[in-house]
Amino acid sequence: AVKGCGATLNGKPIRVTDARAVAKSLLVTGFPHNPGPNVEPMIRRFRRCLEASRGVRRLGSAALDICYVACGRFDAFWEQNLNPWDTAAGFRIALEAGATVTDYDNRPFTLENKSLLVTNGHIHDEMLSLLDIRNEEDPQ
């Protein structure tokens, strides 16, 4: 994808889905190979998204997950603790396909961000709410 030129797959234009609610959406996420002390917040976010959606998948490649949102196979992707090589190419493709791309605090995504949310745009605010666990009691 080239900035301002849209995104294509095998020469055909791609676009994000038109899903208007997380309850009708299929989501995809990932987990770092070594989550360290952040595992509990990740599990809480996963549970909230799983309960609110049609389902959550994990494929194992952030770049592929982002591109799958871009071409309409999934409605949203979220993950944290990513590296620039995990997100750089997919980030541009997703934007060109009409995705909304931010961090968990709804700030525009940059390669330095440590959290990433990619959605079709329609469900972005709802996903941000699901990922915001700051006011939720820790179950431990």
What does this structure look like?
This protein is of the alpha/beta class and 140 residues long. The chain has a single domain (8-16, 24-131), classed as D-Maltodextrin-Binding Protein, domain 2. The chain contains four helices and seven strands. It has a five-stranded mixed beta sheet, sandwiched between helices. A two-stranded antiparallel ribbon has the order 1-2. Strand 3 (26-29), helix 1 and strand 4 (55-58) form a beta-alpha-beta unit. The radius of gyration is 14 Å and the shape is globular. The model has no long low-confidence stretch (mean pLDDT 93).
Widest β-sheet, arrangement of strands: 4-3-5-7-6
The gross shape turns out to be globular
- Overall average residue pLDDT: 93
Helix content: 25-40%
Order of helices and strands: EEEHEHEHEEH
Name of the CATH first level: Alpha Beta
The count of DSSP E runs of length 2 or more, i.e. the number of strands, is 7
Biggest sheet character: 5 strands, mixed
Which architecture does the CATH hierarchy give at level 2? 3-Layer(aba) Sandwich
What's the helix count?
4
> How many domains make up the 3D coordinates?
1
Distance between the termini: 45 Å
> Which topology does CATH recognise?
D-Maltodextrin-Binding Protein, domain 2
Label the structural class.
alpha/beta
Our Rg estimate from Cα atoms comes to 14 Å
* DSSP strand content: 15-25%
Low-confidence stretches: none
